Amino acid sequence: MNYPILETERLILKPTQPEDASFLLALLNSPKWLEHIGNRNVTTEAEAEQYIQVRMLPQLERLGYSNNTVTLKETGAKMGVCGIYHREGVEGVDIGFAFLPDFEKKGYAYESATILIHTAFTQYGITQLNAMTTHTNIESQKLLEKLGFQYVENIFIPNDEEELRRYELKKEMQ
Fold first, then answer.
1. Which of 113-116's residues contact partners 24+ apart within 8 Å by CB, and which partners?
2. Cα separation of 7 and 4, whole Å?
């Protein structure tokens, strides 16, 4: 099946594939990922490829959207991820993003999330997006608010002991 590749002025977002394993390995083990998202216990490129095969591709095949690798158009550098996720035991879908340290604070997360939100509401038939972040991830909270998300409640997601802040953004009905 052909899945959409999204483009902005500076970025390309394409569904994460097994060939993105070395990049994903670096991202999953970056300091902010470990601090704010959690250790996925992925320590080799083979484990990263398996993570993509088991955790990302089935949702992509089932729903038509999942995790996207964000690439800088100018250089082709893989710099982050931005995706829409359906989590077992959690109602609705949520948007998430993370970038390697060298690509933070340059507007890439905002730019990639903006195009993905637009696509979710106009092409995927989604009418509400959630976003979840740790209490300590102030940068993500500020970005979510800049994107138009509003804080709703504190929640626990299945198989996670940490309380998270849940935000939501609803499609504006014309």
1. 113/82, 113/143, 113/147, 114/8, 114/147, 115/6, 115/7, 115/8, 115/11, 115/13, 116/6, 116/13, 116/68, 116/82, 116/83, 116/84
2. 10
pLDDT in tens, 33-69: 999 888 899 999 999 999 999 999 999 999 999 999 9
Kindly state which CATH superfamily the domain 6-170 is placed in.
Answer: Gcn5-related N-acetyltransferase (GNAT) (3.40.630.30)
pTM: 0.93
Amino acid at 137: N
Tokens (6 digits) for 85: 């996720």
119 closest CA partner among 1, 3, 2: 3
- Where are the domains positioned within the chain? 6-170
pLDDT in tens, 57-103: 999 999 999 999 999 999 999 999 999 999 887 889 999 999 999 99
CA distance readout (Å), 52 to 16, 28, 40:
7, 12, 12
